[in-house]
Amino acid sequence: MPAIPRPADRLHIAVSAADPYARGVARGERLRTGIPAALDVYARLFALGGITLGGARDDAERALDVIGGFRPAARAEIAGLAQGAGVEEWQAGVLNARTEILARSTAVPPGECTTVVLGGLGAQTWDWHVELADHWHTLESHGARHTVVGLTEHGILGKIGLNSAGLALHFNILGHLRDTVGGVPMHVLAAVVLAEAGSVAEAVELVRSAPLASSGSFALFDAAGDAVLLDISPAGVHEIRPDGRGVLLRTNHFLTPALTADEKSWLYQPDSAERRAFMSDRLHRTPRLPSEPDALASLLVTGADEPPVTCLPDPAKPLGQRWATLATVTLDPATRTARVLDGTPADIGTAHWRVLTAAPCPPGLT
User: Fold this and answer.
1) Range(s) of the domain holding residue 208
2) pLDDT, averaged across the chain
3) Pick from 119, 125, 105, 114: nearest CA to 42
4) Beta pairing class for 136-142 and 12-16
5) Taking CA atoms, which of 19, 159, 175, 304 is between 20 and 30 Å from 250?
6) Does residue 69 lie within any of the structural domains?
7) Handedness of CA 129, 56, 29, 69 (dihedral sign)
8) For the segment 225-236, what is each residue's pLDDT rounded down to a tens digit?
9) Is residue 11 part of a domain?
10) Structure confidence at residue 105 as a pLDDT band (50, 70, 90)
């Protein structure tokens, strides 16, 4: 299997400004080549699904209008990203709404991720198109209510991370028949949750207040020990609490029976159910559950005859079907620490973790 192309020094962006537009400009200036490159990949993925760039622009402008009505600060930060990168605002909107735009395509199924949370720690594989392996970065953002650290794609406000209040968020994609453009994009919602919410309870309230037209799952857990999985969809937001061992386990299908009837099961099944069953069995057979991040993330290592929790791309497949684990992430809200591995869980021990700490905002920025 050929190695996944990865930069020698993964980009890290640190910004600090009370004004969201200024934060966006600072981020965009670091991405003057990265954002156009990411847009080129997504344009090719859209085209595979019969989505024209003009159609994507219309979708993005609708999404930007909803974002502006829900959180003007998020819309301002996206506008700043565009300004700093030298692209049109709708182009930055396309990236932030890429999940919702791709949901209109049946030719380009979404990627797969696996998340496990237990004992106040979380670990996740972020699986996506291998063509985007060079188009993401780690982030440290000061100036909103809370400092946020984590990873995201070039031009997208947020994805996976935690904040200085001790709230952590893992993000998985789900699919519902009613998914469309016209609500707050899932990636933007994740960014708003981390910027504003100081606890699981605040995060759940914020998600429930959002106008939703697409689906996803947030695994939310905080330094106080609260934890919940959210099934988010246009048909409602449902909570799943930890099992008897304190475990939250997420792949890419709904866990709420009321939502499964209208699930896009052909996108993920049987793979998602197989991955979840495999991980559930592995956890059940582990007498002493891990209490440190490396050991937890190592549970996500799988081999050739096992479900692809560790995901390696098949070079024989065409564009749009080459999935890869682009990063492995652990989150520890007690220490406000996110750890990002530029590789799969199988690379633990041979690759270095990038360690990010969500310290409180510097004086004068709150």
Assistant:
1) 110-357
2) 94
3) 105
4) parallel
5) 304
6) no
7) negative
8) 999 999 999 999
9) no
10) confident
